[in-house]
């Protein structure tokens, strides 16, 4: 992985994590936490959505949407665990 790919991953993860933190109230973890949640969310969505037969599209916008969906799922799971 080169530096450009890493920067794109961080930007996509940051945007997706920030958006997910805004949607799931009380689910934000700060800037670094949101980036991590966004990247993990992208991995979750990259595995889960094709299993369900859902294809969003390609490019940066498609990656942000995928990562956002995964990050929201992850934040909801973390929120349920936190309450238990």
What does this structure look like?
The chain is mainly α. Helix content is 81%, strand content 0%. It has 3 helices and no strands. It has helices at residues 3-23, 30-51, 59-83. Helix 1 (3-23) packs across helix 3 and helix 2 (30-51) packs across helix 3 (59-83). The N and C termini lie far apart (38 Å). 33% of the residues are buried. The mean pLDDT is 83.
Please summarize what this structure is.
This protein is mainly α. It contains three helices and no strands. It has helices at residues 3-23, 30-51, 59-83.
**Which whole number gives the mean pLDDT?**
83
Strand percentage lies at under 5%
Oligomer: single chain
The parts where pLDDT drops under 50 for at least 5 residues are none
Radius of gyration: 12 Å
Q: What's the main sheet like? A: none
Protein traits:
84 residues, mainly alpha
Helix and strand layout, with pairings?
Blueprint: H1 3-23, H2 30-51, H3 59-83
Helix pairs in contact: 1-2, 1-3, 2-3
